[in-house]
Amino acid sequence: MQVKVVGFKKVDYFSQKKQAQVQGVSLYIIRKSQEETVQGMIAQDVWLSTRLVDAMGFVPKPGSDVELIYDYDGRFSSLVGYKLLTPAHNTSSEEGGKTDEEVLQV
Q1: What does the pLDDT look like over 23-55, one tens digit per residue?
Q2: pLDDT for 75
Q3: Rounded Cα distance, 95 and 60, in Å
Q4: Closest alpha carbon to 30 in 46, 49, 48
Q5: What angle do CA 39, 26, 82 make, to 5 degrees?
């Protein structure tokens, strides 16, 4: 599924429900709708586990186009990877003076 990244947020907290530390990234995207009743784009968030981010080696920057790769087992799907299609062209001033490496570190 091709999407446009519009933002992300690092997540790191202790889940009382799971009794475990939860770490990863909430990736905020927009995408074309596949539903006839929706006009325009759909905005949603996609969970990137720390394991997935470590395996991929990067978090997509806002403004980049990304292909999300899912594994379907017939009933459920899970995100197994992503591929950068078009990189973002952020300058350091757009990210509060941070370099690209500082912005992307998780």
Answers
A1: 999 999 999 988 889 899 999 999 999 999 999
A2: 82
A3: 14
A4: 46
A5: 80
Interacting residues of 6 by C-beta distance below 8 A, sequence separation 6+:
28, 29, 30, 43, 62, 63
Neighbours of 101 (CB within 10 A): 8
Cα separation of 1 and 69, whole Å?
7
Element (H, E) at 88: none
Q: How far apart are CA 17 and CA 3, in angstroms?
A: 31
The one-letter amino acid code at 71 reads D
How does pLDDT run across 15-31, given as a tens digit for each residue? 999 999 999 999 999 99
For residues 87 and 64, the answer to whether their CB atoms sit within 8 Å is yes
